Structure formats: C-alpha cells, structure tokens
C-alpha cells in the first residue's frame, strides 16, 4: 500500500514540477506582436536620437572636420564652439532672457489658473457653467489673430519692448488650457477630504493650500511643462513685442546667430545644443510627474 501510494503522488509531483517549469518557460516567450512592437519602438527611438547625437558630436568637432566628413565621432572633446556661442554670439543674454520670461510666465499663469480652477472644479454655483465656457473659449481662439489690438493695448500701457509685457501675454495664453486641466483634477478628488478638513476646523484657504494643492501636484507639473515648452520655443511674440536686441529670447536670437555664423558649423551646432538643453533637462526631471498627471486625469477628462 505504501509503495502504491507513494508512486502516484511522486508521479503527480514530478508532473506538476514539469508543468510549472513548462509554464515558466512559456511565460518567458514573447508573442510575435510584442516583439514587433518592441522593434518598432526601438527603431523609432533610434530614428529620433540619431540627429540629436549627430548635433552633439559635430558641436565637439572643428568646422574643417565637419566639412570633410559631416558624419563622424569627435576624436577629442573640445568646447571652444560653446564658448564662442555663449560669449561672441550673445547667447548668455538670450538664454537669461528666455529663462526669465518663460519661468515667470509659467509661474504667473499656473498660479492664476489654479485659483480659478479650484472653485470651478469643487463647487457648484450660479454662472459656473458660463465661466467654464468662457475659459474654454480661450482654447478655440488663436491669440496670434489678436496681435494688432494686443500690440496697441501694450503700447498704450507702455509695455512694448518690455519683458513684463511679454510675460503678461504669455501668462494669459496659458491660463485657458491650465484651467481646463486643473479643474478636471480638482473635480475628481473625494468630497470627504473637504468635509473631514472642515470638521477639524480648517477654513477654505487652509483646505485649498494644505489639502487640495498637494493632491494635484502631478497636474501642476503637467500643466507647467506643457506651458514651458511652447513658450520657450515661441518666435512670434518676442519678434513683434521686443525691439531691443539685449531683450531678445533664444528663438529670435537664433535668426541673427545663423546669419553671423553661417560658415562656422561647429558653433552653430553648439548654439542648437544650448537652446534645446533646458527642454531635455526639464523632461528628464519631470517625466514621472507628467506621466502621473496624464494618467490620473484620463477618467475625468
């Protein structure tokens, strides 16, 4: 009896072990569709990164080497082209202007938008729908069509050829999108959090500052990034509203830079790297917040 009982159980265990081993083996295998998607994604990544690497490599090579061999790897690290772009091409002034104007515009626009989005997302009041439609209409009307009355308005206020005037214009252009995104995030937060805070004696401003703002931090990061990128790359408004060369931003300064250094390819590539580096750093730092913000609002938007 003992032998007959042990043998089948051993056989069952051995078969179970073989079955689990087979399952693990099957789990390691990827489907052809998954392999195809991975190959496609890696191919797209290589296609995107190849021009960036080419610009980086050529910015570290002498211009004569670039003329002889446009595609190549630098034999030594030389940063003279970056020094030339930063000092002789006035990139230091362009960079500081772009950074100051863009950061100030994002902070001002996001700050005003979160103050408007909080009551629209958390409270129901008369005229709330009309106010939401008013902000939404800002997404439908291109601001560039209003450049003439906007220019006249800023001229009467003495804000033409002023960094402050450009900051105000940029902040206004980003408010509709920010209100639309942030109000959706505020709307999805549980009402019990507000009720519990009120029971603890918190006022409306305390609830907003200590309870609600920390919970929508991913949304704030998403909004800030999506405002920063187009403002950093904008060419139209600085060209129209700024007249002094010492107030130009990087996109406008690049036009002059390309004309002055059109034969110095190494310096040209260095200037492009200086222009794009803040955007790369921003996305590397804020990637997790951007993904969290985008995925958290899918259900409510």
Structural class: mainly alpha
Percent strand equals: under 5%
Tally of DSSP β-strands: 0
**Tally of helical segments:** 14
Q: Give the overall average pLDDT.
A: 84
What would the principal axes of the Cα set say about the shape? Answer: globular
Radius of gyration: 28 Å
Q: Main beta sheet, described?
A: none
CATH topology of the largest domain: MetI-like fold
**CATH superfamily name of the largest domain?**
MetI-like
CATH architecture tag of the largest domain: Orthogonal Bundle
Count of spatially separate domains? 2
In angstroms, what separates the terminal alpha carbons?
A: 68 Å
The CATH class of the largest domain is identified as Mainly Alpha
Poorly predicted spans: 1-18
Q: H/E order of the elements?
A: HHHHHHHHHHHHHH
Query: Level of helix content?
Result: over 70%
Please, could you describe this protein's structure?
By secondary structure, this protein is an all-alpha fold. The chain has two domains: 29-78, no CATH class; 91-296, MetI-like (MetI-like fold). It is 79% helix and 0% strand. The radius of gyration is 28 Å and the shape is globular. The chain starts with a helix and ends in a 5-residue tail after the last helix.
């Amino acid at each position: 009896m003992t032998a007959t009982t042990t043998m089948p159980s051993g056989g069952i265990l051995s078969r179970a072990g073989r079955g689990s081993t087979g399952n693990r083996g099957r789990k390691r295998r990827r489907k052809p569709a998954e392999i195809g998607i991975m190959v496609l994604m890696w191919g797209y990544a290589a296609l995107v990164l190849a021009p960036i690497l080419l610009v980086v490599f050529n910015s570290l090579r002498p211009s004569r080497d670039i003329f002889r061999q446009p595609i190549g790897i630098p034999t030594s690290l030389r940063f003279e082209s970056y020094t030339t772009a930063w000092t002789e091409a006035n990139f230091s002034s362009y960079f500081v202007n772009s950074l100051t104007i863009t950061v100030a515009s994002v902070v001002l626009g996001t700050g005003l938008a979160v103050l408007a989005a909080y009551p629209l997302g958390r409270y129901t009041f008369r005229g709330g729908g009309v106010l939401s439609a008013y902000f939404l209409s800002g997404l439908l009307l291109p601001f560039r069509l209003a450049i003439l009355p906007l220019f006249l308005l800023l001229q009467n206020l003495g804000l033409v050829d002023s960094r402050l005037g450009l900051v105000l214009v940029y902040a206004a252009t980003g408010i509709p999108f920010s209100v639309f995104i942030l109000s959706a995030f505020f709307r999805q937060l549980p009402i019990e959090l507000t009720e519990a805070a009120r029971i603890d004696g918190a006022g409306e401003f305390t609830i907003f500052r200590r309870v609600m703002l920390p919970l929508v931090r991913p949304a704030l990061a998403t909004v800030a990034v999506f405002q920063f990128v187009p403002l950093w790359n904008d060419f139209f408004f600085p060209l129209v509203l700024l007249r002094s060369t010492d107030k130009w931003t990087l996109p406008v300064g690049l036009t002059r830079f390309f004309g002055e250094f059109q034969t110095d390819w190494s310096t040209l590539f260095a200037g492009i790297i200086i222009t794009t580096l803040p955007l790369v750093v921003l996305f590397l730092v804020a990637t997790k917040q951007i993904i969290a913000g985008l995925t958290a609002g899918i259900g409510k938007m």
